[in-house]
Design a protein that fits this description.
The protein contains 7 helices and 2 strands. It is mainly α. It has a two-stranded antiparallel sheet. The protein is globular and about 40 Å long.
Length: 162
């Protein structure tokens, strides 16, 4: 089954299949490796292990108070967007939405900036600088800088898989 499921060139997938018992788990891992590429997959696994899961949970928990009020729902949605990107940032690209409501997006970004966007941005910027110190940490520093840009002005932007 392993040889038919994975190609001969995918030794990592074969090792994962041997250790994983569930067929759903096998399909998900195989799909992620094939669609993202092996390096993006490994980068996302390392990211999750070394803090990405914690960052994502923090964004998820931060979105809960926003959903309590009707006015805060757009901010909760943006916080969930940050949570999804911070869980697996490798292989994702942030693009500006051309059809965004210009004046409303600008107003919401200004509110977001004062509510907490600047602190989130500075946190990601600081972690990015710490990762840039080491050669191995440069890709992770780049992901933190990407998250810092999104954390500063999330309205009018979308996350696209590459």
């Amino acid at each position: 089954m392993s040889d038919n499921f994975c190609s001969a060139r995918s030794q990592i997938c074969l090792n994962v299949i041997i250790k994983c018992k569930s067929s759903f788990c096998i399909f998900v891992l195989y799909y992620r490796i094939q669609t993202q590429g092996i390096m993006k997959f490994i980068g996302n696994i390392i990211w999750v292990v070394f803090g990405g899961l914690i960052i994502s949970i923090e964004y998820l928990l931060a979105s809960i108070p926003f959903f309590i009020s009707i006015i805060g729902i757009p901010f909760g949605i943006q916080s969930l967007k940050l949570a999804s990107v911070s869980l697996c940032p490798f292989g994702k690209k942030i693009e500006k939405i051309e059809t965004s409501t210009g004046c409303l997006s600008t107003f919401m970004n200004i509110l977001w900036f004062f509510i907490g966007g600047v602190w989130i941005c500075l946190t990601h910027f600081g972690f990015g600088l710490l990762f840039y110190i080491t050669i191995i940490g440069i890709p992770f520093g780049s992901q933190h800088m990407k998250l810092a840009r999104l954390a500063l002005t999330p309205f009018g932007r979308t996350v696209v898989g590459r």
